[in-house]
Design goal:
alpha/beta, Rossmann fold, GMP Synthetase, Chain A, domain 3, seven-stranded mixed β-sheet, 22% strand, globular, binds 5'-O-[(S)-butoxy(hydroxy)phosphoryl]adenosine, Acetyl-coenzyme A synthetase, ligase, magnesium, nucleotide-binding, AMP binding
Length: 665
């Protein structure tokens, strides 16, 4: 047992507990102790390019070795390892056929209904090769874009790997996005095919996927799409368009189980993943091949201390970047055994995560703070689903990702899931960063609940003020990364100007990567604590959403004249969505307001997806505005929290409407 040691001095946000990694963990860790960490940090500082070149040679198999590590000529459009050639699928699969992993289990697939399917590296390799040959038979080739709209499945991972194998750039769209969101992404990416399933099975329910693809394609504008490949998951009834749609089994069954990988340049776009920003339209974050793979493999070793005997489980969805780096690519690149889970944490009961850890003897468990918080509530209410009711002794490392974890949830996770014997890696990163950026190293960094602690070696994270000047520890500011790193975003698909202006703003000198988060470093330890987004981006249950995106969806409804969306702190989901709406008709009250609010929620679900539905909708005759007509969002945030307004409202044009906006429909 690892006792908490009280430390003098103020931690990031007043947290004073410090937990050291267990000595036995440190002894066997990839990065063993703070001296080892500091040595890596020093190596990167001494010879930045040499550091990355060494790691890229050690962790990635190159078909053509690179000679140039970093090209900064056209900053911020950085190029890494640009004259090297490689293939990601080769690195993730073929490598494991000759290093003794061929018969090792790559994937333990735990279906929604509890059925288990094991897939070895040899089998996964054959599956991916057949899939890749099938895609080739449709005429899909290097550089083509393929949209993947799939549930959590072996086939979903195989689809990604198959694209990587033939040099096609995939864009996975989360299965919870609506037809309209899917259509917009297909059009922006100019995709030639969609890979989907008939339906998905989640929480005991069958939910449509193919029908949503049909709906998206019927909306028009998707003329680049030639084929829809359909994996039969449930056997549910679906429509088939002759000549366009093809069953996955018909596509792959007669294909050869070997497929020569397409060797691509290190900068070749491996994938595009759409994420929300502060404008109404999502942006296609484009990642490269070589640098991304390096970071996926290396962080599996550094942050997760992955060992050959581990059973690793990341509960994320392949629709998000976590499911890319820490399911589809990272674990396979290092030859790990991983659990892939189709279902939801609460089905058939809220102990499903713990039961699954027990069942597969999971050793490394990586999940989101929202899931932890909701399972705390569930196990408070029902002892049977409490982690203590399961044998979790196989666990040796825990991780969290996606949003800040509050110290109470951290402590509960540490005590009840980790039995005070497992380090917790609170990994701060983003879709744009490709992999972990700031996180404890489990065998090195003393942990402080609620702090993501220190940057990984080679990651030059810092906190600056609005002019780009460093701020001293203990003073909050803007989180930046001062030097390019291999797995960083390369551009925004179709929009290099937005990439440059948004991530390398001139105000900060044009050279620093702007993460979009505020942060503070502890006075004594230099530990980072993320204080939340500094832009109009919300984080609801770890799902990233733009307030403008939701506002645009709301005003697209014929009833709505104006809308403003803000985040409100929420005990379980981190933040919740609160929408202030002005209708074209008179302000509704009572039952009328309830009915219209329900209508608008359904509407947003159709425009974006169920995750974007506002939890609260409040109607006003108007919104609080300055005399020049600017919506005063800071007042809306105060109102959303249910607090009374103490700020100066003298610039407010119409103070009377503040009263109306206190009331939730
Ligand atoms: C945003 C990125 C990281 C992959 C999944 C989400 C927030 C993420 C943490 C953390 C505090 C965190 C940030 C970030 N975030 N991890 N450990 N502590 N905040 O990726 O959808 O691109 O969202 O999630 O606000 O900017 P994403």
């Amino acid at each position: 047992m690892n006792a908490a040691t009280e430390q003098q001095g103020q931690q990031g946000l007043g947290e004073t507990r410090v937990f050291n990694p267990p000595a036995a963990f440190t002894a066997n860790a990839a990065v063993s102790g703070m001296e080892a960490y500091n040595a890596l940090v020093a190596e990167a500082e001494r010879d930045y390019e040499g550091f990355w070149a060494r790691l890229a040679r050690e962790n990635v198999d190159w078909q053509t070795p690179f000679t140039r590590t970093l090209n900064e000529d056209n900053a911020p459009f950085y190029k890494w390892f640009e004259d090297g050639k490689l293939n990601v699928s080769y690195n993730c699969l073929d490598r494991n056929l000759t290093n003794g992993n061929a018969d090792k289990t790559a994937i333990i697939f735990e279906a929604d209904d509890g059925t288990v399917t094991n897939v070895t590296y040899k089998e996964l390799h054959a599956k991916v090769c057949k899939f890749a040959n099938g895609l080739k038979s449709l005429g899909i080739k290097k550089g083509d874009r393929v949209v993947i709209y799939m549930s959590m499945s072996v086939e979903g991972v195989a689809a990604m790997q198959a694209c990587a194998r033939i040099g096609a750039t995939h864009s996975v769209v989360f299965g919870g996005f609506s037809a309209k969101s899917l259509q917009e992404r297909i059009i922006d990416a100019g995709a030639v095919a969609v890979i989907t399933a008939d339906e998905q099975s989640r929480g005991g329910k069958q939910l449509p996927l193919k029908a949503i693809v049909d709906e998206a394609l019927a909306m028009g504008g998707c003329d680049t799409i030639k084929n829809v490949v359909v994996y039969k998951r449930t056997g549910g009834n679906i429509a088939f368009t002759e000549g366009r749609d093809i069953w996955l089994s018909d596509l792959v069954d007669n294909q050869a189980a070997e497929c020569e990988p397409e060797w691509v340049e290190a900068e070749h776009p491996l994938f595009i993943l759409y994420t929300s920003g502060s404008t109404g339209t999502p942006k296609g974050v484009q990642h490269a091949t070589g640098g991304y793979l390096l970071w996926a493999a290396l962080t599996m070793k550094w942050s997760f201390d992955i060992k050959p005997s581990d059973v690793y489980w990341c509960t994320a969805d392949i629709g998000w970047v976590t499911g890319h780096t820490y399911i589809a690519y990272g674990p396979t690149a290092v030859g790990a055994t991983q659990v892939i889970f189709e279902g939801v944490p609460t089905f058939p009961h809220a102990g499903r995560f713990w039961e699954t850890v027990q069942k597969h003897k999971v050793t490394i468990f990586y999940t989101a703070p929202t899931a932890i918080r909701s399972l705390i509530k569930a196990s408070d209410a029902d002892e049977k689903v409490h982690p203590k009711s399961f044998d979790l002794s196989s666990l040796r490392l825990l991780g969290t990702v996606g949003e800040p974890i509050n110290p109470e949830a951290w402590m509960w996770y540490y005590r009840n899931v980790g039995r005070e014997a497992c380090p917790i890696v609170d990994t701060f990163w983003q879709t744009e960063t490709g992999g972990h950026m700031i996180t404890p190293l489990p065998g090195a960094t003393p942990m402080v609940p609620g702090s993501c602690t220190l940057p990984l070696p080679g990651i030059m994270a810092a906190i600056v003020d609005e002019s780009g000047a460093d701020v001293p520890n203990g003073q909050g500011g803007i989180l930046v990364v001062k030097r390019p790193w291999p797995s960083m975003i390369r551009t925004i698909w179709n929009n290099p100007d937005r990439f440059k202006a948004g991530y390398f703003p001139e105000e900060l000198g044009g050279k620093y990567y702007l993460a979009g988060d505020g942060a503070i470093r502890n006075k004594d330890t230099g530990y980072f604590t993320i204080t939340g987004r500094i832009d109009d981006v919300l984080n609801v249950s770890g799902h990233r959403m733009g307030t403008m995106e939701i506002e645009s969806a709301l005003v697209a409804n014929p009833l709505v004249a104006e809308a403003a969306v803000v985040g409100k702190p929420d005990d379980t989901t981190g933040e919740s969505i609160c929408a202030f709406v002005v209708l074209k008709q008179a302000r509704p009250t009572g039952e009328d307001a309830k009915r219209i609010a329900a209508e608008l929620r359904t509407w947003v679900g159709k425009e974006i997806g169920p995750i974007a539905k506002p939890k609260e909708i409040r109607f006003g005759d108007n919104l609080p505005k300055t005399r020049s007509g600017k919506i005063m969002r800071r007042l809306l945030r105060v109102l959303a929290k249910g607090e009374s307004i103490t700020q100066d409202v003298s610039t407010l044009e119409n103070p009377a409407i503040l009263e109306q906006l206190k009331e939730t429909a």
